[in-house]
Amino acid sequence: MRMSVLIPSWRRPDELARCLNALDSQSRPPDEVLVVMREGDEPTRKALEQTGPKAFPLLPVHVGVSGAIAALRAGLSEASGDVIAVTDDDAAPRPGWIAGMEAHYRSDASVGAVGGPDRLRDRPEPIYDPKTVVGSVRWFGSVVGNHHLGAGAARPVHMLKGVNLSVRRAALEDRWLDDQLHGEGAQVHWELALCLALKRAGWTLVYDPAVVVDHYPAPRFGEDQRGHRSLRALEDEVHNETYALLRWLPAWRKPVALAYGLVVGTRKAPGLLSFMERLPHERDRRSLARRLLAAQRARLAGLATAWRQGHNPSG
Description:
Layout: E1 3-9, H1 13-24, E2 32-38, H2 42-49, E3 58-63, H3 68-78, E4 83-86, E5 91-93, H4 97-107, E6 111-115, E7 118-120, E8 136-137, E9 143-144, E10 155-156, E11 165-168, H5 190-200, E12 204-207, E13 213-215, H6 231-248, H7 253-263, H8 272-278, H9 285-310
Parallel strand pairs: 1-2, 1-4, 2-3, 6-12, 7-13
Antiparallel strand pairs: 4-11, 5-13, 6-11, 8-9, 10-12
């Protein structure tokens, strides 16, 4: 079984060097590592030129447009592995990362994707509870991540996180790297769309708390900044989540998920009820109202995108 690793990278040479060094320390080395870089990204190019010998072939892959999906497609087209593992340039996989993922694929042919926690190193160490719900889409459409908090035994989940995710090549189809997702760079929730598509096709997704990457969240470029997203980035994120749910959930759950988003929503992307509940206590009511309008507009846009794709014979 060949194990390929894809690392989309953009102007973070120090973080990329740390990631490559971590991959060089794997107990089971990857068979190849592909660094997907944008044309004109001189810092990344120089970092690769200065990288010393590794335990694996290191292959640069160039892509001419921005976005996570374009980077993943470019890397996938060049990768030779039976399993494609993805991580970020600001992450450092622990030594058992490759071996741990490979064991799940070898032991069960129904496993289509494997991932694990990203231990966030920009905040105090939390208490890891095996009872914490991880990678779940509740029946009414609420998406629960918590991937960084998982502990205990390996278990099936609905979704994995893009910084620590691998997919069996046999489970992949081009349409599951979905070009309907919005956003300039990270294209938030691309992994939700991928994982729900895999689930819909009958594959098992495994979250294993022993398959760990240490994550040192670095600044993003473009609209989607960590901790302070613009309204445009909020709209992109909510559109992508809504689209993924309405594209791939079972038919009876789709209207429930849409109604939950429009009526309840989340703290970050409020629906009508959460807006009304928070309004009396909110200092910046205009900002809250703008977030409500942006989120509701994005949910309806996500519905429209899912409708078009669902009625497109080639979609």
